[in-house]
Specification:
Strand content: 25-35%
Distance between the termini: 59 Å
Number of helices: 9
Order of helices and strands: EEEEEEHEEEEHEEHEEHEHEHEHEHEHEE
Structural class: alpha/beta
Largest sheet: 8 strands, mixed
Helix content: 10-25%
Low-confidence stretches: 1-10
Strand order of the largest sheet: 7-20-21-19-18-15-16-17
Mean pLDDT: 93
Shape: globular
């Protein structure tokens, strides 16, 4: 029998055309479900593996098609009611219609499938899964403004979806969102402000204006002062974030991990195999891994290309009397300058991964132990393929669910050099 789709908010305006029927094979990286139709792969949002669905073709590409769900005919036993009123319209979450445990298992499956498909890698070890609370975890959000409306962008679009609050954002961020909503209704709110980033340590909240109409960059001091009256800390350029037993200065332009509940677990996991006397922390940010490394008595060189992050890193090292040599440089330009391998290397690159040049330099140096942190399983698979071919052995593989209810996958893997 045909049942109405569980998440009615996710249902877009129906496209004309016939309704087809099929069974969802699996989820793929990015959040969509894969279904086969007349020899073509169709990607469907808001579905779960094993479900039988009615769907239409929304956009036909040469090798594949984008679909839209018309009905859930046989629902997965793991399907749940989304807890957010704008789920399916806001582009932030993709997995709220599935139970939290099932989400994690699907991410582990996608990780293993991607490693095999892209890198030809079949790990002969289990995937460790680390997780925390599925709601209220974000310490940073980007809010968009259109007139008096405040919210998030819809999936793959700049269309504004107004929100009342955000269930995956921290309590203090939600207070800041409420304050901005009230301010936006007042006549003096500057209408050229389009996007604002909020970052909070639950005591203070930094406010960074990301986007304005016409590229206007300067915002009057009165507006910042007004924000500071409503949102404590928003007039500051940096705050102190307590994580893993340490205090980190974080500038509003510096990267810092977003899941406030998993910071300690992440640091412990990344440093699990940290040994020796010398370490290299690549793409180090403000020192989330470098400072704990130094506390273990390991002399650390931290390499980071962002000027604001390096300033924070130097301040954090000084505040903790840490033995850290902070280097502002691109990693691919820094590595050729060293000839002696450290005992331990951490690499936490952006979504693009390490890339061939960095992998080649790591294979030249051959550090005894290498820990990779990745936010993209495809680029991780590409980098791992080269490292494993160069003599490294995969020792441990962990999935950290840093972004519950979304399709994001964070991986930590340990490699040791076997020659």
């Amino acid at each position: 029998m045909n049942e109405p789709i569980t998440n009615t908010a996710a249902r877009p305006e129906e496209k004309p055309g016939p309704v087809f029927h099929g069974q969802v094979e699996k989820l793929v990286f990015g959040g969509a479900g894969l279904i086969r139709h007349e020899g073509k792969t169709v990607m469907l949002p808001w579905v779960a593996p094993g479900e039988r669905v009615g769907f239409k073709i929304a956009k036909d590409h040469k090798q594949w098609a984008e679909g839209e769900v018309v009905s859930i005919e046989e629902a997965s036993p793991e399907r749940t009611d989304p807890f957010c009123g704008v789920y399916g319209r806001c582009g932030g979450c993709q997995y709220q219609h599935m139970s939290a445990e099932f989400q994690r298992l699907q991410k582990a499956s996608i990780l293993l499938e991607t490693l095999e498909r892209v890198g030809g890698i079949q790990p002969q070890l289990p995937v460790e899964i680390l997780f925390g609370e599925p709601t209220g975890y974000r310490n940073r959000v980007q809010i968009h403004i259109d007139g008096t409306r405040i919210g998030y962008h819809s999936a793959s679009s700049r269309r504004l979806v107004p929100i009342e609050d955000c269930p995956i954002a921290s309590p203090t961020l939600n207070k800041a969102i409420q304050a901005l909503k009230q301010m936006a209704r007042e006549q003096r709110f500057p209408r050229f402000v389009e996007s604002i980033e909020l970052f909070s340590n639950e005591r203070e909240t930094l406010l960074n204006i990301l986007e304005t109409k016409g590229g206007q960059r300067r915002v009057a001091k009165w507006f910042i002062d007004w924000c500071a009256e409503r949102i404590p800390g928003s007039g500051q350029s940096a705050l102190v974030y307590r994580a893993a037993g340490l205090d980190f200065q974080v500038n509003h332009r510096s990267f810092f991990q977003t899941n406030r509940f998993l910071l300690e677990k992440l640091v412990e996991r990344v440093l699990r195999h940290a040994t020796g006397t010398k370490a290299l922390d690549l793409y180090s940010g403000v020192g989330l891994f470098a400072l704990p490394l130094s506390r273990k008595g390991i002399s650390t060189t931290a390499v980071e290309s962002s000027a604001s992050a390096v300033r924070d890193l130097e301040a954090n090292a000084a505040n903790h009397s840490a033995r850290i040599d902070a280097v502002r440089a691109a990693v691919d330009q820094f590595l050729p300058s060293i000839n002696t391998a450290p005992d331990f290397v951490i690499a936490d690159p952006p979504r693009a991964g390490l890339g061939k040049l960095v992998v080649q330099e790591l294979l030249r140096l051959r550090p005894r132990h290498l820990t990779l942190v990745s936010c993209d399983p495809a680029t991780l698979a590409r980098d791992l393929k080269l490292l494993l071919a160069g003599g490294y052995h995969l020792q441990d593989l962990s999935l950290l669910d840093l972004f519950p209810n979304t399709a994001h996958i964070e991986t930590v893997c340990d490699l040791s050099f076997t020659g």
